[in-house]
Amino acid sequence: MAKHILVVDDDALLRRSLSLQLEQVGYRTSTAASAEDALALSKRDRPDLILLDVGLPGMDGLEALRQFQMEDDVPVIFVTARRRELDTILGLELGADDYITKPFNPDVLLAHVKAVLRRTERQSGGSPAQEPLTVGDMVINPAAHTVTVADKPVELAAREFALLHTLALEAGNVVSVDDIITRAWGAEFLGEPQVVYVHMRWLREKIEEDPNNPKRLVNVRGVGYKLVPQE
Description:
single chain; alpha/beta; Rossmann fold; Arc Repressor Mutant, subunit A; 4-stranded antiparallel beta sheet; 8 helices; 39% helix
């Protein structure tokens, strides 16, 4: 299975460029424009490695690293544009696995990525994001990529599964469309809510008794969607 790399940077062009370069050599990527979005995304889909910009808006990369270390010890490569930031990283010895300064040669970046992944090779089993979830009569197993409803297996495409898993992690609570996009699709899809609407329709057709009168996947108008447990 391809290693999953989460690219966290507020520069949209750089995110797209890095994702493309990583995918061209066989990695699977997700993207986030902020540390807050990255933390939420990693809870649903645990990365094997995070490329983390230090100078993020809101929560900066240094605080984000602390949060990632508390929640799930994922290896992190800091990406920094300023010498002062680099001095801070090294001086605090925060525990990032590596760092690289902008601008960088893509081959150099890939060498850093491969080196860190080799050093931190380990089983991802046992990660909270991979634990089976029970929501009423529905069981979602991310590690096996299976869903059962009332003990009956349901076949879901990858995006449908990601959408359902995102809502299951917040079962009973409303998740905004933007949050769903960030966690299930990535930052590059923000501003395209139709991807959620289309996949929600397909998902309802597979798990609702009456897709036109949904009881599980409920829309809260103007807010978002929630997964309601059914016994």
